[in-house]
Structure formats: C-alpha cells, structure tokens
Amino acid sequence: MNSLKKQRYSILPVALATSLLAAALPSQAAICTSNSNVVTSTVSDQKNRDAGGKGGHVGLHMKDASAPLPPSGDNSQMGKSAFKNWATFKSAFDTWKANTTKTHVNCGTSGSVKDIVDASLVNITEAWKCTAVGANGICSSWQKITPSKVCFIYYNKAGSTGTAGKWLMNTAYPSVNADCT
Fold it and tell me: Which of these, 72, 67, 87, lies nearest to 140 by C-alpha position?
C-alpha cells in the first residue's frame, strides 16, 4: 500500500509539468477566427492594410471604398463583389466568429485558407458587383446581387512579399457562387 501511494504522488508532478508545458507552447494550428492578428485585421480598413507585411485587401470589397485602394489587391474593383460598407463586413465576421455550430478553418504555419459561409448565416442578404470603374479603380457602376455565400480568406506568408509571418484576414467578399469563385 505504501509503495502505491509513492507511485501515485511521483506521477502527479510529472503530469502537472507536462500539462503546463503543453499550455505554454504555441499551437501549430488554431481556429483562424480566434487568431488575435486576424481579429485585429478586421477592425477597420486601415488595420487590415497594416496587419502584417503587405497587409490585406478587404477594403477592395466595399461598395463605399475610396482611393487609394489597398496596395495588396489588384487596384481595381472591376468585377469584384462588395459588402455595403465595413460595418456590414465586420458584423458578418463577428457573427461567424461567434458561431459555435459550424466548423471553422484552422490557421496552420503558413499559406492561405478560407471559411465559406452561408450568407444567410451571417445576415448578408444583399451585395453588389462592380460593372465599371473610373481611372482610379473605384467602381462607378454597381449591379445588385443576392449572395449565397460569404468568403473569409486568411493568409500568412513570411518575408517581404508576404505578411511578415502573421496571419491576417487577407480578403473577404460576398459571392453568388457556392465555392466563392
């Protein structure tokens, strides 16, 4: 009986140390909507542009975008779908982030991953597609669309052409296509 007590008590410190070490080590893959830099990059267009390295280009997909467009996008809204404004996008992302009934993608060590979400789930019932742009790339003519999906695309790439090794919301947009193409 005495040796059993010794064994039980000698295992306890090892188990405690192992669990503390596991909690202290960064996870290789975590849900993207819980990544602090991703969340910060959804606060505003400026925060998205400043989120790491070359930044994101969510601002390209806003009906009320203004020049200059984000440098990481293709500098034109032509053919792009758009949210009404940043507040509409932010509300959709926050609703998705709070959703616990659907699977969210994980952000691993690098690359690009996306959540494709039913538009109705995040309260996006209308969107717009750009059909003409001015010289500054800002849309001058919009066609109203009814999206079926909303795409949240996360990205991380080390180096000067990437995001400085930080995950961010690279882009987000409403889509009429089930696969967000």
Answer: 67
At 4-32, the pLDDT tens digits run: 454 544 554 444 444 433 333 344 578 99
Structure tokens at 77: 């809204």
Is the distance from CB of 142 to CB of 174 less than 8 angstroms? no
| Maximum CA extent, the chain | 85
Residue 100 φ/ψ, nearest 5 degrees? -115, 5
Cis omega before residue 147 (within 30°)?
no
Q: Give, in order, the Cα–Cα distances in Å from 36 to each of 81, 100, 178.
A: 27, 18, 28
Q: Which structure tokens are listed for 29?
A: 């893959």
Place of tokens 């975590």: 30
- Return the residue matching tokens 């009906």: 63
- Domain ranges in the chain are 28-175
pTM for the model: 0.82
CA atoms within 13 A on the CB side of 8: 5
Q: Over the stretch 62-102, which tens digit does the pLDDT of each residue have?
A: 999 988 988 766 789 999 999 999 999 999 999 999 999 99
